[in-house]
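Collaboration report, partner site 2.

Our partner group contributed sequences for two proteins of shared interest, and the home lab folded both. The records are reproduced in the order in which they were received, starting with the first partner submission.
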Amino acid sequence: MSRQSVPLRKRNDLHLQIPEKLKNRLYPRVLELFSQKDAYQVSISSISKSSGVSSGTIYKYFRSKEDLLFSIIEEKLAELSNRIANEIQGLESARETFRKMLWVVMDYYDKNAHVAISAFISLPMHTWMRQDAFRIQTAKHIFKDMLHKGLERGEIDDRIDIRRFQDIYYMICYRSIHTWYFFGMQWRLVDALVQDFDIFWKMISRPGD
């Protein structure tokens, strides 16, 4: 049976078996390659050469370079979601909760620039949309809870539902990261957050606040 005809397995069933030692060796090189080149320029063979992991070992765990990259991104987004959940605990004000959430996100991408570039710059949107990482949206339950509490306190515009919120959130993320990347990453993403948050808050807060 050819590699192309192998039935697709659920990513989680397959990738839970990946040894941490292999992840530590492979994942940083993958993110580095995808952050330095357009997606079409990266191949399994170039990943193998950069990481020292054989193509056969890579294909043992991943169906393609896209499958490999999005497995990494899923893990990173889950890590980011956990960090958001921990950092916003105990905050009462909706404004402060959302400000802290965005600060955690941008601080994470500052410290993991290869993740930001791979996810927001290197990959075309149509590729994103075909992946589990795009559909699952690991932080969605956190966003829903934040919105619910903000609406209960009367601090959030009641026209903002989870879909509109996520549209605004990703618009801010894309704008911030694209601008930062275009100008050669000359500043930290968190340093530009003051102005970006003012825009974000005006879009989701109750009119007049």
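Second partner submission, folded after the first:
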Amino acid sequence: MLSTTKTRHYAAFLFDMDGTILSSIKAAERVWAAWAERQGLDIASFLPTIHGRRAVDTIQRLGLPNIDPNAEADLITLAEIEDVAGIEAIAGAAAFLRALPAERWAVVTSAPRVLALRRIAAAGLPVPDCLISADDVSQGKPAPDCFLLAAERLGVAIENCLVFEDAPAGIQAAEAAGANILVVTATHTHMLDTPHQQVKDYRQLTVSLRADGLQLSGL
């Protein structure tokens, strides 16, 4: 059970997208399952591997013969842009994000920019001024590049940022970057095996702006 007695201060908040501020599991798994079936993959064992990484990285890791990972990733992105049925905001996320000053937060996602904007709109969430997508880095999560770039664009030190994540690859990326981490478990069926603090969603979290940064309460 969460305590509301603790408060912490950060220069900025960096949010993963899928599974962290919105749930796109149903839509993503529909598209990826259809792709996996065409490739002759075992769908049940493959689907858990798609979350938290860029599509091109997921495909490259399979080592499939006669496959152009970039071309296949582009096709998957187009299909995901078309299919946004069932995408919804994580509980409390919309109000929490709207309470943040625009210059104090970013979305850092493994999705391409066009897909990220489509899903954010479908979930009814505010569009961030700073959006770091798969298009902005040459190395995706679990490499730290995306979070480091977000901190740089916001003009803050990464060690003074709090990363909100839900997937192991993203948690590894945030750890490698040197950020603080809060794990959101709204889309999980059980708590993750991680040393980082976990919250189900945003309904018990509150934030206020102070001279020394963002004050987060509810942990």
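Feedback sent to the partner group on the second submission included the following. The chain is about 35% helix and 20% strand. Residues 1-5 have pLDDT under 50 and may be disordered.
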